[in-house]
Amino acid sequence: MSTMPIMPATPESIREAARALARGEIVAFPTETVYGLGANALDGSAVAKIFAAKERPRFNPLIVHVPGLAEAGAFAVIGETARTLAEAFWPGPLSLVLNKRAGSGIADLVTAGLETIALRAPAHAVARALLAETRLPIAAPSANRSGRVSPTTAAHVASELGEVPAMILDGGPCKLGLESTVVSIAGAVPVLLRPGATPREDIERVLGQSLVLAKPDDAITSPGQLATHYAPSTPLRLNVRRPEIGDALLAFGKDVPEGARITINLSHVGDLHEAAANLFAALRELDASGATTIAVMPIPDRGLGEAINDRLNRAACSVPASRASDRS
Ligand code: TXA
Ligand code: MG
């Protein structure tokens, strides 16, 4: 389809966008904060397309957009604090990081392999109509290329991403123009992970307590609670062409060497989208296999391979990645 991807948001174009999402395509849509680049959060290869669309992609976890609290419960464990905050601020610019519900079907790539998930119910009428029409959870980062500021008009999205999305739903300029506030309530105390369009004071007033402020290096000092990246505990060795006995092999492509005690192939056909969609589940499985080392075959450094290698390099250095820069 090489039609102009910007479409004024109407009931018909919203229906068409919902159909595109169901087919595994990506669609840009307005929210009250910024434009998002959305995919079906249940479809790993659709989510991989989001990362491919960003020029220098990194697998940061994405916010999953849902209509409200009722739907959120299918994907995350909703405790009292979550309920209180959602009732006070949803729909609106607050993203809640919660413990993921097991077996919810959310693709691993959405949460970057974490046990937590960020959920938000947007307030924008077009976003709400799209959610109602698709009835799918929509994973969506801001619709900018990595390192650029978030787009607040459909024209910004088009100039950043061109015809990469199947469609850009035009709902006019975003009212707030600033991303949602991200608060984690997955740990013992509520933590402000990203300041945003919902003021901290408002959240603290509703909670009746202060938010802990996440410092950029908190991922290192408070593992588990603030770490935003899943890291296997088994050491990684990269660019391995000949695995040793006892290695767990993370393979890629059709020419797989023998000799590893267990092998998982990210993509037999050498497809980087498929590899991205399989990456976190494969790391988890190899990590649990009891191998002494996870040996990783060379993965081409083009397209999504760059993000895959970025992620593997971080895991191999076993220095927890610093928190996602908010230009994600
Ligand atoms: O306003 C917004 O939030 C926009 C619109 C489109 O909804 N979205 C947005 O998404 O700004 P993105 O991907 O650009 O930023 C998501 C932020 C990142 O800082 C990411 O690290 C954090 O949310 N995040 C997502 N899931 C997380 C998780 N499980 N744990 C910790 N942080 C998480
Ligand atoms: Mg962003």
Outline the structure in words.
With 328 residues, the chain is an alpha/beta fold. It has two domains: 6-180, Alpha-Beta Complex (DHBP synthase), CATH 3.90.870; 236-324, Threonylcarbamoyl-AMP synthase, C-terminal domain (Rossmann fold), CATH 3.40.50.11030. The protein has helices at 11-22, 44-53, 69-72, 80-89, 125-134, 154-161, 200-207, 218-221, 272-287, 305-317; strands at residues 6-8, 27-29, 36-40, 63-65, 94-99, 116-120, 138-139, 167-170, 181-184, 191-194, 212-213, 236-237, 247-251, 262-265, 293-296. It has an eleven-stranded mixed beta sheet, sandwiched between helices. Strands 12-15-13-14 form a four-stranded parallel beta sheet. Helix 2 (44-53) crosses helix 9. The longest helix has 16 residues, at 272-287. The two termini are 28 Å apart. 52% of the residues are buried. Mean pLDDT is 90; it is low at 218-227 and 319-327. Threonylcarbamoyladenylate binds next to strand 5, strand 6, strand 9 and strand 10. Threonylcarbamoyladenylate (TXA) binds next to strand 5, strand 6, strand 9 and strand 10.
